[in-house]
Here is the input.
Amino acid sequence: MTADAATRRGGAEVAAQGWGWRHAGQNRWATKEIDLFIGSGERVLLLGPSGSGKSTLLQGLAGLLGGADEGHAAGRLLVDGAPPAQQRARIGMVLQDPDAQVILSQVGDDVAFGMENFGVSRSEIWPRVDEALAAVGLNMPLAQETSQLSGGQKQRLALAGVLAMRPGLILLDEPTANLDPAGVVEVRDAVTAAAESTGATVVVVEHRTKVWLPVIDRVVVLGADGAALADGAPEQTIAGEREHLVRSGIWIPDSPAVTVRRAPTVAAETLLVAADLAVGYRDAPPVGTGVNAEIARGRITAVTGPNGSGKSTLALTLGGLLPPRGGTLQGTDAFAPSPKRPEPVRWRSRELLTRSASVFQDPEHQFLTGTVRDELALGPKALKSNPGDTSARIDDLLARLRLDHLADRSPYTLSGGEKRRLSVATVLMTRPAVIVADEPTFGQDRRTWEELIYLFAEIADAGTAVVAVTHDDEFVDALADERIELSAPVRP
Here is the structure.
């Protein structure tokens, strides 16, 4: 523990002694044999390749893993000397999936919920709500409907709910993954300020290290099997373990840029045309407005902009899953199933399968079966594809996206990064002409990120049009042929 960390008070102590966890019905340990002590007030960055058990360790520390019916634990895991389930009033966690943490229908009530559960007096609750929302940059009315928030705004909301409780242990699982660049720094600074004020212990899981290194005390590196491989001061640990970290896919400062050599094999034929397009949900004001774009074969279009600007809503509209709120969106005669029905929102589900496929921001929203392999086979079955061809394609995608060892696992038991790769693979199985992907590189280590980058380049060069909603500047720099930039909405 650094001298600076030693001066902080109010934080929880964390101890793992030979701890491990295996999900029910699985032979593979999600994480195992971890020996770790984190002192009061320390700030720790937890690194490791996708699937190494980082999220599992955080869930264990939060007391969220359940009993014997959900899995098997080995060793001991303690917070302030007791099992985490007995210390929940001392622990706050921001989950990898912000949707899973939104409980109530209004922003103010959602932030207040945790404090109400732990008996904070009413006179304290609402000042804390205002303070927490301001700290994370979520400047909106307390009565704002949570259902109308973007993914990044929900992530800020979840963090506000945690900071308002003033816990002794703050656990953050990819807390900035869905945030725009300005939001990343704002959220990091909000966590740092809260830790300085209360003395809280902080454990952060992130694949990309640069933003957090200036504000943490220690780096702990997990190996592929979940065991701790290195533990020490940030600069020395990153320098000493550089080769292992790069090999494990960790995003370390000054990582070399990825160069993708494109080799298109088809002409850039226009498939979709948006003219003065406005998007939004029926019961809410339009968000993205005035969008003019052509989506063409073999071209990769990046949709960028700040949180709340309508990127995900535009993606759902381009994918034929939401009607436009203004302007037009039409498929060309060569692309639409009928000249009388050029609008994607009017196409039948079977027509969409081979024309326009969507990768949702939350991967679980598109899982329908009990195993990874069955999930990949679902689309081809609907199209009555050749079973032999389907099986070969499944094996190829599983290997390329490092999911082959998970083929018989339930999609819902995968890590966040693994779920994202599976959701991308499912839409590739039907070979659609257009793929609309919302945050396709979310939760990836550098190795799996590169696999996705090369895969998107390959399918685009073969003639697929790709539309990617993203905050990932490296993705845009490596792949984007076109860019749609949305602006933040003007709030009254």
User: Anything to note?
Assistant: Residues 207 and 481 are 26 Å apart (CA to CA). The two ends are 47 Å apart (CA to CA). The longest helix spans residues 181-198.
